[in-house]
Write a structure and sequence with these properties.
Length: 105
């Protein structure tokens, strides 16, 4: 049996204390020290992280634009999450898993 995907999370209270938001946040500098302080970020099984409102998943996303236009992506069936099939997104990103390079602050 395959091991469940582990994703990087922080406790929601940390996120709330720095400044909770929905959508995009371009002022990332104010979050970096708090989120990546020793012992704050941790890995949890994805199924738990997605059901427990006490944790927030860290999902880095980039936008690519040129000459007033944005790159977009349409999810295909092979992407893994069938609920997203056919969905268009202008943000490219995803969960952070063990083994992904992590910044050091």
């Amino acid at each position: 049996m395959a091991q469940e995907e582990q994703v990087l999370v922080i406790k929601r209270e940390v996120f709330d204390s720095v400044g909770a938001f929905n959508g995009l946040m371009f002022d990332v500098e104010r979050y970096l020290k708090e989120i990546f302080a020793t012992g704050v970020a941790m890995f949890k099984p994805r199924s738990e992280a997605e059901k427990d409102p006490g944790y927030k998943q860290l999902i880095p996303t980039v936008l690519i634009s040129y000459d007033g236009r944005f790159l977009s992506d349409v999810r295909c069936k092979k992407a893994g999450e069938t609920r997203l099939f056919g969905a268009r997104s202008i943000g490219l990103g995803g969960q952070i898993n063990p083994g992904d390079d992590m910044p050091v602050f």
